[in-house]
Amino acid sequence: MSSVVIAPIAESLAAFLQKNNFSFIATIVDNHTYRHCYPAIKPLLNKHTLIRIKSGEEQKHLQTCETIWEALTKANFDRHALVLNLGGGVIGDMGGFCAATYKRGITFAQIPTTLLSQVDASVGGKLGIDFQGFKNHIGVFQLPETVLIDTAFLKTLPASELRSGFAEIIKHCLIADGAKWDEIRRKELADQDWQDLVAHSVAVKQRVVEQDPTEKGLRKILNFGHTLGHAVETYFLTRSAEAAPKRGGQTGRLLHGEAIAVGMIAEAYIAFTRQMIEERLLAQIEEYVFSVYGRVALTDADIEPILALTLQDKKNKGKQVRMALLDGYGSCAYDIAVTKTEMQQALDYYRG
């Protein structure tokens, strides 16, 4: 497993670079991390190549990868070089994918700067890009050399990004730690202890990934909420700006965690209808998740295309949609075959 260090970035990055002798270093940033995060690491780097890309999930495609590969090639990067991915999940997924495939693989390190990437995307070695509207459709498993987490970067984020990342924290509690779930659901978002929750989520994910690095079995529990959640996210990502989703009285692009919040409620409902969880747990999830994220307005016309997108889910076997479903407080089962009717009823339940 990769080492994960939760500490001020000036300390952790300096120690990492001192222990290694890289021939070249590239730092990949987006517009946000270039302004707000890059100044914190620039003094620690001597001569290095800066690769700056546009921000957003819509940049996570093959053309951006070509830009990164071209920059590495022009700088004569060899297989003893290092790529530092400074950013959220898009930078980590895509920068890691580019490093893992450049000259059949060079060393890379993740420096996650969003809550979502600190608790989820940077740990576990899943790398990839979107393709023809499908999330993470092309990718590989490759662990970074290290993950350097500094929760001070969270201060650069808008509240919407904190909410988005918090969905993965909720998920980790629901699938692996019922006591932690009881703790977080009694607090408002603003009152959460981010240092503690980041460390907790990293520990949960590491424990699972160590047992199943390439998602053949147990690791699939980390996909709770993600079958319908990813379908909802992809559906709204590929629609026009005029058709942006409405939730909580606001309109705009649906963030990853907001979509996963939809998925968690809907998939918890399926678990309840199968008598895998008690109504009390379903009610807790519904009440708390709605209090944090509001309700995404899904119309009748949205449901069929969302259900169609579940057929492209990577957990499926043949044409059979498979889910990770809760089977108790802090417990989750995986590889559960579900029907289109069950998913439609779950989305109808979510809509209220």
Automatic annotation (TrEMBL):
Record SUPFAM superfamilies: Dehydroquinate synthase-like
Function: Catalyzes the conversion of 3-deoxy-D-arabino-heptulosonate 7-phosphate (DAHP) to dehydroquinate (DHQ).
GO BP of this protein: aromatic amino acid family biosynthetic process; chorismate biosynthetic process
Protein EC: 4.2.3.4
InterPro entries cross-referenced by the UniProt entry: Dehydroquinate_synthase (IPR050071), DHQ_synth_AroB (IPR016037), DHQ_synth_fam (IPR030963), DHQS/DOIS_N (IPR030960), DHQS_C (IPR056179)
Lyase found in the keyword field: yes
UniProt KW keywords: Cobalt, Lyase, Metal-binding, NAD, Nucleotide-binding, Zinc
Location of the 3-dehydroquinate synthase N-terminal domain: 51-163
Protein name: 3-dehydroquinate synthase
Enzyme class: lyase
GO cellular component, one term: cytoplasm
Residue span, 3-dehydroquinate synthase C-terminal domain: 165-316
Keyword match Nucleotide-binding: yes
PANTHER family with a match to the protein in the record: 3-DEHYDROQUINATE SYNTHASE
Required cofactor names: NAD(+); Zn(2+); Co(2+)
MF (Gene Ontology): 3-dehydroquinate synthase activity; metal ion binding; nucleotide binding
